[in-house]
Specification:
Blueprint (H helix, E strand, L loop, with lengths): L1 E3 L5 E3 L11 E4 L5 E3 L10 E6 L6 E3 L10 E7 L3 H5 L21 E5 L1 E6 L7 E6 L18 E7 L8 E2 L9 E9 L12
Parallel strand pairs: 1-3, 2-4, 3-5, 4-6, 5-7, 7-8, 9-13
Antiparallel strand pairs: 9-10, 11-12, 11-13
Length: about 200
């Protein structure tokens, strides 16, 4: 079941509490205030909450409220990244801890952008939202420290380097996970010339 919220300005007091058949809620740009909406509480196994406006509404008390193992996916427009995050951090590389607190652990998707996720052994995953038709760019390309005697060769879609190579000039067509591929540092390569 999908609910398209009418053009109203305020939502409050858990309006969909116990709606276990509800799959999608579309929140129009006219909504300016959300108070204790508790989307997802005693709801379906998976709930999609879609914000249509680029200006984030004022949110107070619990907005997203996952119940037990239920999954909630929140979607915001790419033009509203700064507004929903409350700062410009969303324009660069992020960790889960930097996601807005009102998400309350829900998954975030950005309409009009693809996500690049950087997987580095021994480190927490980091990611960036790349607007469609834009390059990854230097600000959203993770800098990683290479192991001793190594240097970063490339970021690759396969951990063994057999996939696609990506750099700051790449344009994403879908969400992607990349891994750092290291090679011997140039100063460690010894050239040997043999004479007959």
């Amino acid at each position: 079941t999908t609910i398209n919220i009418p053009k109203m300005e305020t939502m409050e007091d858990a309006p969909f509490y116990g709606c276990t058949k509800l799959e999608t809620i579309n929140i129009p740009a006219t909504v300016k205030t959300l108070t204790s909406t508790r989307f997802g509480y005693v709801g379906p196994e998976t709930l999609n909450v879609i914000f249509e406006g680029e200006a984030a509404p004022t949110m107070t008390n619990t907005i997203i409220d996952p119940y037990q193992d239920n999954k909630i996916i929140v979607t915001i427009p790419v033009g509203g990244l700064n507004s929903y995050f409350g700062n410009e951090a969303a324009q660069g590389i992020l960790t889960k801890e930097q996601l807005p607190s009102w998400l309350n652990g829900a998954e975030l998707k950005v309409n009009g952008a693809n996500t690049i996720t950087y997987k580095v052994e021994g480190q927490e995953d980091q990611f960036a939202y790349i607007p469609s038709e834009e390059t990854i760019g230097e600000k959203r390309m993770l800098t990683v420290e290479a192991p001793e005697g190594k240097e970063l060769k490339e970021w690759n879609t396969k951990a063994d380097g057999s996939g696609d190579s990506l750099n700051q000039d790449s344009i994403l067509t879908s969400d992607v996970i990349v891994y750092p591929i290291f090679t011997e540092a140039a100063e460690n390569i010894v050239q040997v010339t043999l004479y007959a």
